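Re-run with default settings, no changes from the original entry. Doing this only to confirm the output is reproducible before filing.
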Amino acid sequence: MGRELVILSPVERRDTLLHVIRGARRRLTFSLFRCDDRKVLDALGEARDRGVLVEALVTPSAKGWEKRLKDLRGLLADLGAEVHRYDGGNAKYHAKYMVADDSTAVVASLNFTQKCFRETCDFLLVSHDPQLISSLRRLFKADCRAAGSPFPRNLSDRLIVGPEQARRRIEALIQGAKRSIHIMDHRIADPDMLALLRDRRKDGVQVEVVDDRELGGLRAHGKMMLIDESVAVLGSLSLSPPSLDNRREVAVIVKQPEVVKRLAQFFEERKALRK
């Protein structure tokens, strides 16, 4: 599978994304909820100029972005991208991922916006896992089809795709915790999940939640969960009813020790800022 990287710094997140886009030679596939960053858009145009097939799947709606989403679809089409407006059965396409060629996958919690590249607390994972790459491509292809298309089978176990899998998979991870559950999620509000976390605390599991809307000068936006400091989950999925039940979300399970350790350190750093 190769070494995976988690990117936490806002500026490094943009640089990493640009590196992935500029490295594509044949095909670039990605989903968008919001995007207004000129450098990212220019890099996508440059990819088309060198002959890369660029495919974008854009959400049909995002609060306050109705006109801008229409303009974004038009801009991407003008750049030469194949643009798909999500028409599936879920309210919004909130997932944030990108696949370059058959070599690199990016799963993130951030939008490709200037705000997320400057002032938000977010997470971006770069992976070379072939099964993860293949699964994201198949999910993209399925979600480009009309509502009612079958959900792709045999996706990588590392992917948690909402709403079809979200609640069941997250509950199983929480139930399976033996020592600790650490969560960063400023939108945590689902009654059943909150009740389950209370029950796990009664079982003797250490449960800590950082749900602040601002930490260390950065706005909370990313979502992350650590189980027993050996398994991490990060992506667009939050523990809120809309996210668990009504939106296309994508999160990825990470077990690579270096990545999990860095995320555990980050959690402790963010937690310390609350004191």
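The mean pLDDT is 95. The longest strand covers residues 247-254.
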